[in-house]
Amino acid sequence: MEINDKRIQHAVRNTEVLRAPKQSLYTFGTTNIYYYLVTEPSYPELMETSSVTETVVREGKVTAERPRIVTPYYLSRLEGFSLEARRYFGELLNKYGSNAGGLFYTYSNETKDLTIVSDNLPSVVEKLNAEIDKHGDPLAAIIKGENDLWDVSLMKFIFEVTTSSIADNIGQLSRRGLLDMDTAGIPADARVRINELFSMVIRGERDPSELKEELDRWGLFEEYQDRFFNIFHRRC
């Protein structure tokens, strides 16, 4: 998809992953990536008259949930997509069929600290690398981005991490048979996910509405409705 905003294009071009995580996103669990996003300040006209070089360091944590196997049909029923996105889902349905499998990754970003360091960017990066090596975190990352659009730089990083993890994730899922589709066109992984949600709802860890939404997205509520309503009988 072509990016029309020149500022976004500039930010993407000038984003560089200086230190990538040393392992792929977990296939069967939650991945927490602690990142340092380093940028030069957005006031170059002031920097020209100053003898002090500064670097902006943003620290945060990106949490990647366990990747899920989905189909175009499933995606088309998710909330929050525009009309254009839904039209695209329609094209996917026509091209690949409603039961074509793919991986769906969900992320959340938690920003922690913003620090302005009185040092140049290469020197700051060198010190951050030394700090990461000291603690031995294989999932820590350093990203060089654009200060005004730092979140665009972060999104590019997330995309690259996802892309580099897909082959490994698919391989592990395939070896466990979770990519297999049943006669209803439902991936085995989706059935596993539904059973996990049932257990979490029973334990009070998830709201029943989340389970209901997942069943509806797969068109499976009628199949599971007796089991769903039994949850409430147990609580009586």
Q: What can you see in these coordinates?
A:
This protein is an alpha+beta fold and about 240 residues long. The protein has 3 domains: about 1-65 and about 105-175, no CATH class; about 70-105, no CATH class; about 180-235, no CATH class. About 50% of the residues lie in helices and about 20% in strands. It has helices spanning about 5-15, 45, 70-75, 85-95, 120-135, 150-175, 190-200, 210-220, 220-235; strands spanning about 15-20, 30-40, 55-65, 70, 100-105, 105-115, 140-145. The strands form 2 sheets. Strands 1-7-2-3-6 form a 5-stranded mixed β-sheet, with helices on both faces. Strands 4-5 form a two-stranded antiparallel ribbon. The model has no long low-confidence stretch (mean pLDDT about 85).
Give the class from helix and strand content and strand pairing: alpha+beta
Number of helices: 9
- Domain count: the total is 3
What is the number of strand segments? 7
Helical content band: 40-55%
Which short descriptors sum up this protein?
single chain; 236 residues; alpha+beta; 3 domains; two-stranded antiparallel ribbon; 9 helices; 7 strands; 48% helix; elongated
Structure summarized in a few sentences:
The chain is an alpha+beta fold and 236 residues long. The chain contains nine helices and seven strands, in the order H-E-E-H-E-E-H-H-E-E-H-E-H-H-H-H. The strands form two sheets. The protein has a five-stranded mixed β-sheet, with helices on both faces.
Architecture blueprint of SSEs:
Blueprint: H1 6-13, E1 16-19, E2 31-39, H2 44-47, E3 55-64, E4 68-70, H3 72-76, H4 83-96, E5 102-104, E6 107-117, H5 121-135, E7 141-144, H6 150-175, H7 188-202, H8 208-218, H9 221-235
Parallel strand pairs: 2-7
Antiparallel strand pairs: 1-7, 2-3, 3-6, 4-5
